[in-house]
Amino acid sequence: MPSTTSARSSTWPVYTLDPDGSLTFVNATLCAESGYTRSSLIGTHVSEILPEHDVNRCQRAIRDPLETGGRTREVTVTVETQDGEWLTATLVPSSLPLSSGFRGTVGVVRDLEPGRPG
């Protein structure tokens, strides 16, 4: 979980995932934008709020730089809100610092706007 005040108070939605893809941290901005409470999101696997094809694209965006040493790329996804509405968002995922193996990811959500799964 981010320990810095900047992640907690960022005006951008911020999240962290464990290596299996479950949410371990979400800031207040992400909760406000999605309509979910923090407690309902923590421990939730991303497949419960993202379509499967977007989950697969995000996994590749995270895995490819780990395997090649390249840079992480942005991924545009659709996210289901608590109310069943869909938002289009650009995710900017990065691997958490490594000490021994993959620890998960931290990401910033940008450009949230109404959208439909594609």
Order of helices and strands: HEEHHHEEE
Low-confidence stretches: 1-6
CA-based shape: globular
What structural class results from the helix and strand content? Answer: alpha+beta
Measured distance between first and last alpha carbons = 31 Å
Largest sheet: 5 strands, antiparallel
* Gyration radius, in Å: 13 Å
Fraction of residues in helices?
Answer: 25-40%
Structure write-up:
The protein is α+β, with helices and mostly antiparallel strands. About 30% of the residues lie in helices and about 30% in strands. It contains 4 helices and 5 strands, in the order H-E-E-H-H-H-E-E-E. A 5-stranded antiparallel beta sheet has the order 2-1-5-4-3, with helices on one face. A hairpin with a 5-residue loop joins strand 3 (about 75-80) and strand 4 (about 85-95). It starts with a helix and ends with a strand.
What distinguishing features does this structure have?
118 residues, alpha+beta, 5-stranded antiparallel sheet, 4 helices, 5 strands, 28% helix, 29% strand, globular
